[in-house]
Amino acid sequence: MTSSQEIELLLTPEVAYDELARYRALLDAAGLVPGQADFVHLRKRSVDARGRQPLVRLRADIYRSAPPADLFGPWFSYPSVQQATRSVLIVGAGPAGLFAALRAIELGIKPIVLERGKDVRTRRRDLAALNKEHLVNPDSNYCFGEGGAGTYSDGKLYTRSTKRGDIQRILRILVQHGATPDILVDAHPHIGTNKLPYVVATLRDSVLAAGGEVRFDTRVDDLLLTGQHLRGVVTNTGEELTADAVILATGHSARDIYELLHRRGVLIEAKPFALGVRVEHPQQLIDQAQYRRQDRGQLPAASYSLVHQTQWQQRQRGVFSFCMCPGGFIVPAATAPGEVVVNGMSPSRRDSRFANSGIVAAVELEDMDVRQYGALAGLRFQQEIEQRACQLAGNTQVAPAQLLGDFLKKKVSAELLETSYQPGLVSVPMDQVLGAGLAERLRQGFQNFGRKIPGYASNMAQIVGVESRTSSPVRIPRDRDTLQHPEVRGLFPCGEGAGYAGGIVSAAMDGERCAEAVLAQVAAGL
Ligand code: FAD
């Protein structure tokens, strides 16, 4: 049996991020000298910036004999499902779809993954065309394609979910497929857009190696419904595919899927979401505010998380930061021509000169025209603002922008700052893009954030529109226990697009849960 000693320490960044100095400090704290420990396993690492100087909190296990074998993986194996008698169609190869596929394999079900976009490598060309030529391919963009919306992202892996066990499982699957083991250690783990494509391709390889199928350029355009039983789907080539069940994991941007469900009489509901802008600051400004040092040295690029309750026309709404990307880039996340949508991503080293974050206001059902548009009211609200952003900025992927200080003073910006947003920016008063209510709420939010971070709400920053794809504006309901649609047997709404996840990790966890539910329901005869 292996025994270990747990050590918790606060160290300066210079020691904490230097492997040898850290090793010595940990042994010293354990009262050991080099040679007396067999292995030091770092278990947790977080930056504590509350004091006068930022410190790094470490938790480690020190082994005086060989550490347990399961510390290093591999933790999972994927048995062959080539001869499996059960199969599931999984629509969408985002985190929800891919993790549903792997879990299905573990459970002995053959997954057939249908993805409208391209494999992760080929997808890159469409992103280049989007950034340089302003061409939006409606099937291959920052939201659609292998790995889903999570591939060309920051790859932040934290979630508000409290299911620690499941989170660790997802992180271990990612490590087994090529992600850095640091994600098992860091309090705020992230992978980075330069490393994610490899991880995604390796996840797909595991599905294929076990005998599952992954079909790219395969868009689901219709449903094979027999009464209230979903037997399969029809693809863009007219092919009809059937299976024991369908996991629908198409993400929050698959508007054609919501329209299809609506048209075919499958119950969907309008859902609150959030909408706003992306704000871009020099990373150095955020570093100085958070770390109180001129130079962050070896510390990671600093981030922030902000929230404020606003009031406008007797309605209270939260304004909050969303998907903050330290050392990152703003990217064009539109999924159709004629709309401008922005989002953020960063490389693993988070070393760009810019910090960007969504700053969004909650949009509740009473803010939308539910009477006219019913279940699609949120979607129409979102679409209208995205199209207005595009028109006001000149009908390309150039995005409307305003200096933050000018926005607060309702002044047109005479010029803009340098930006990480490759298609370019044009000065537009953001009130015209957002409308009075949203603009006023964001102003109240920014004013409050300016009191929390010195220099934040100034002309050293600019806001870029619009950050509208924060979460799904539609819910596809499902039964709490069976995870099946309440009216359509065989349909398992899954992930962010159905309204049951927000972010890579929670979508992956939901994918796993849906695969488990498919097994339970198919075994019970649906
Ligand atoms: P998605 O990832 O949206 O995947 C859905 C898939 O379904 C897509 O691949 C799409 O092509 C496919 N599809 C859609 N319609 C059809 C159809 N009709 N037929 C076949 N296939 C279809 N989250 C984080 O946790 N951390 C981050 O750092 C982060 N950064 C982000 C940065 C950007 C630029 C973007 C756009 C998102 C970011 N997110 C981040 C959000 C995260 O990517 C999503 O929450 C997550 O990907 C949702 O997973 P999903 O599998 O439910 O849906």
UniProtKB/TrEMBL annotation:
Q: Which domain of life is it from?
A: Bacteria
| Chain ranges of the FAD-dependent oxidoreductase 2 FAD-binding domain | 88-121
Q: Which residue intervals define the domain FAD-dependent protein C-terminal in the entry?
A: 272-470
Signal peptide feature range: none
Which controlled-vocabulary keywords does the entry list? Flavoprotein, Oxidoreductase
Q: Record's Pfam families?
A: FAD-depend_C (PF21688), FAD_binding_2 (PF00890)
Task: List the InterPro entries hit by this protein, alphabetically.
Answer: FAD-binding_protein, FAD-dep_OxRdtase_2_FAD-bd, FAD-depend_C, FAD/NAD-bd_sf
Q: Does the keyword Flavoprotein apply?
A: yes
**UniProt name for this protein:** FAD-binding protein
